[in-house]
Amino acid sequence: MTRRTFLKLSALAGAAFAAARIIKHLAIRSTIPVQASGENTINDKWVATSCLNCPTRCATRVRVADGKAVKITGNPLSQVSEGENCPRAHIGLQVLYDPERINSPLKRTNPAKGRTIDPKWVPVSWEQALSEVCDRLKLLRERHQPQKLLLLRGLNTISDEDMICRFADAYGTPNVISADALENEAEKSGGWMADGNYIHSAYDLARTNYILAFGASILESDTPLARNLRMWGKIRRERPNRARVVVIDPRYSVTAAKADRWIPINPGTDGALAMAIANVIISERLYDAKFIRNWTSGFDKYKELTLNYYSPERVGVITGIHANTIREIAREFAVTRPAIAWRGRGATSWPKGSYNSYAIFCLNALVGSIDVPGGVIYQEKPEYRSMPKPVEDSIAREGKAKPRLDLRKTSRFPAAEVVTNQVADSILNDSPYPVEVAIGFNSNFNMSAPGTWRWDGALEKVPYYVHIAPFVSEMAEYADIILPACTFLEEWSYDHTLPGSGCAEVRIKQPVVEPLGDVKCITDIVFEITRRLGGTVAQSFTPLGKDTEGFVRYRTKTLIPWEEFREKGVWVGAAYQYYKYDRIFNTPSKKFEFYSSNLETRLKETGNGVHDRLACLPHHEDVEFQGERDEYPLVLLTYQPLLNVNNGSQNYPWAQEIFLVMHGVGWTNFAEINSRTAEALGIRDGNMVWLESPFGRIKVRARVFHGIHPQAVSIASGQGHYADGRWQKGVGVNPNQIIGVDYDHISGQAVFLNTRVKVYKA
Amino acid sequence: MRQEMARWGMVIDLDKCVGCQACTIACKEENNIPHGSPQEQKRRTEIYWNKVIAVSNGKYPTVSIDFIPMPCMHCNNAPCVTVCPAKATYRREDGIIMQDFRRCIGCKYCIVACPYGARNFNYKEPEEEEYHRPDPPPSRSQRGSWPFPHRVHGVVEKCTFCFHRIDQAIKEGRKVGDEVVPACVEACPTKARTFGDLDDPNSQVSQLLASRGWTRLREGMGTEPKVFYLPK
């Protein structure tokens, strides 16, 4: 057949199709008024909005045809990722059209709660649902116990988070718990010890010449992911000089696969390696003497420590990396400037993770990579229009003065901003007081936190739990009321990215389609609750607008005219300024500190005292594992693959079917075991095995893999959902079910990587 | 109108590709390709017009894994075209290998003949609503008509280099390769993929091929693919 005949056939088919349309149109013409724009005009528009499938919140543009969202692409105006998106953005369509979404508020009719117990949902009206919730909330305030309300935050837009925090303030509870301490708080605290900024570090990727990545999953899960991906292309092949990348990780991650060199390290010893690298750089005088002299303090103590205790030979034994290799990478790192030492979750999700983080971060200062082109940069924040202070009554003031459930900034967690995983134990122990009402905003902690069983128990125990999300997740299974929220493609919001590009950037979220079902934006739900509560709570919210759109307009008014914001989708701040040494160091010395006075102060304030001369210096301590080595010989390392969608669900076939790119399969996760280890255990590729820790066991398929340390077994997170969802239920296993509870106590970060397991055939 | 017919080709930089699979999803999104299920993956009956494969070499600790995105290679000497008894697979003048769903008799010879595994058989019943999306409008200002509103059961499917985008762009006088590219190229966050006219020495693809050594898959089979890979 020729092309001509094909075209003819197509034309015929097209004509038939058109005829069918016209006939259909004529048939309904009598009842439906014809649109003024003409009968063949069909709505085909692009709407600027942004993603929320991970905390990067990339700016996107969505094509809407005939009222249906059909395509998502990047927004070229966004500086963070230069208009690119990662694959998670495309999955937004399946988030929007997820067949398992909830269409109306649901009320539990089965009073018994538990993992396998059917809640027996019945749909109720918004009026009934909200009045029941508000009755509970009113009662707590009437009893002068607003602190017994617990608010749990999963992944929400920044505007929703602002609303939730303000609600807590006005209502009077100090207990707003984010999921941050399940991510990478130890990274932040390590940075804070050095420069006083408790933030995720940003790196000037486009201009760097060398990246030394410690357990950093730059190309899979580190944020802002879309930026990392775009910059990867840039630094490897779009410049005359190709940046060199060395990855230190017990697991051959995607980042390791794409790097110039992968160096497997004994699990949990990254801090020691960083100190040994410092040893080489200092002893060979390869450091940036001028920066050290002018802008750092505590260098002498640090120098003495590194030179006396962290010789490459000694650290070689600890890390399993040959001393000569350590010298090689130390020299490369010091002379190939600008260079970045990047600390990822693999290096910091350990009991002394803050010190690992501090040790690695200090390498940047050694080579002068602080606030220079190609080094660590300091993200500018957008200046939203400020809100008037919430109106507080004495009930709110007294409630907020009560101790927090997560024990942050106490002797147990001296520098923590939040200790997510502690809350489950606080609920179970009624300590410091019982929780009466909890509200979860897109949270799913009984899946995503180590020691999932404690969260199950805690949720069973909470007398009244309200879950707000677009779908039924594992946490929602314990709810008394579920309030269905919009997805991010149906709501108004403003959002900014995690640190990355340096310059400030705000993205809009605007509805690309009308909300599907009887669902509401989280901000609208909060507005509605405050109006029903009345009094000072309501007064705190009246100046902010009537609804979500009004609130977003209010907050962004000082940045950009509303119509322009809707049209462009992003607002970008001034170009980034480097060398702001007089402004970026929030330390007592106003310098980068190799000896942390911030930590010293905090330890004293919280009554810990500073008894150990190492307490405020970067250093390495041997990891205390959970489980005895003799019985549980392997370390369980979890990692987040790129297609683990971060919104608490995994009910997305596009993500599921290509979930593990390394292994070429989807719809599962594996226990990845080193080939030699597997052979010794008599395990073959594809065998079903038990992974057993002191806390439980899970049955999973083994994958014999050359890319994992012989003393470790790795497994991807994001699977093992048991809540409804035809594309997620029963797919894979959740490793958090067998991971014990431990913390990096300085930051309150939950430790994911120090549980030992044994593996045997099922 | 163009005076000479272009010869479309794709260049994929394996140094830039990080295996994120945005191309795979964008392709499904663009071309309404049905997603699979655990059962279909087990039976190997899923449909991908583009897939990223991982090729593993070596042993711990000197292992290496390469990610190779696999669209249709649109071969100059395409075995699928030669073997098709129904002439359902044919080569357009611009070199794109097309599949006519109406002529395809579902014999799968082409699937056997293709050395790249680029072809898939659609086992799905059309009434399975899961993968249907309503037909977007016929007049699309930017992206060309979207060709596959309704899928056909029992035929072979494959990558088209997003011919609908190309045809629309040419009609509108927009530059293919710069302004308009296939969905996988557009979605690639590392910009590992480049698309354009191989016969035009000024096109991005030609320039890239001139700048670095390149390779094609299974060169020895004489298929002369028009997808070129720039090695790491």
Describe how the helices and strands are arranged.
The complex is a heterodimer of chains A (762) and B (232).
Chain A: H1 3-29, E1 44-50, E2 59-65, E3 68-74, H2 87-90, H3 92-96, E4 106-108, E5 121-123, H4 126-142, E6 149-153, H5 158-171, E7 176-178, H6 185-195, E8 202-203, E9 210-214, H7 225-237, E10 244-248, H8 254-258, E11 261-263, H9 270-283, H10 289-295, E12 296-297, H11 299-309, H12 312-319, H13 323-335, E13 339-343, H14 345-348, H15 353-366, E14 376-377, H16 394-401, H17 422-428, E15 437-441, H18 445-448, H19 452-461, E16 464-469, E17 481-484, E18 493-496, E19 505-509, H20 522-533, H21 535-541, H22 548-556, H23 562-568, E20 570-572, H24 581-584, E21 592-593, H25 597-605, E22 634-639, H26 653-656, E23 670-674, H27 675-681, E24 688-693, E25 696-705, E26 712-716, E27 743-744, E28 749-750, E29 756-761
Parallel strand pairs in A: 6-7, 6-15, 9-10, 9-13, 10-11, 12-21, 15-16, 16-17, 22-26, 23-25
Antiparallel strand pairs in A: 1-2, 2-3, 4-5, 4-17, 8-14, 18-19, 19-20, 22-29, 23-26, 24-25, 24-29, 27-28
Chain B: E1 8-13, H1 22-31, H2 38-43, E2 51-57, E3 64-70, H3 79-83, E4 89-91, E5 97-99, H4 109-113, E6 120-121, E7 156-157, H5 163-172, H6 183-187, E8 193-197, H7 204-211, E9 227-230
Description:
- The complex is a heterodimer of chains A (762) and B (232).
- Chain A is an alpha/beta fold.
- Chain A has 4 domains: 1-41, no CATH class; 106-178 and 394-492 and 517-559, Rossmann fold (3-Layer(aba) Sandwich), CATH 3.40.50.740; 187-379 and 579-595, Dimethylsulfoxide Reductase, domain 2, CATH 3.40.228.10; 634-761, Barwin-like endoglucanases (Beta Barrel), CATH 2.40.40.20.
- Chain A is 33% helix and 17% strand.
- In chain A, helix 4 crosses helix 20 (522-533) and helix 12 (312-319) crosses helix 13 (323-335).
- The longest helix of chain A has 27 residues, at 3-29.
- Chain A is globular.
- Mean pLDDT of chain A is 93; it is low at 1-40.
- In chain B, the strands form 4 sheets. Chain B has a 3-stranded mixed sheet with strand order 8-1-9. In chain B, strands 2-3 form a two-stranded antiparallel sheet.
- Chain B contains 7 helices and 9 strands.
- Chain B has helices at 22-31, 38-43, 79-83, 109-113, 163-172, 183-187, 204-211, and strands at residues 8-13, 51-57, 64-70, 89-91, 97-99, 120-121, 156-157, 193-197, 227-230.
- The longest helix of chain B is centred in the N-terminal third of the chain and has 10 residues, at 22-31.
- In chain B, a hairpin with a 6-residue loop joins strand 2 and strand 3 (64-70).
- The chains are: A alpha/beta (762), B alpha+beta (232).
- The interface between A and B is large, with 68 and 59 residues.
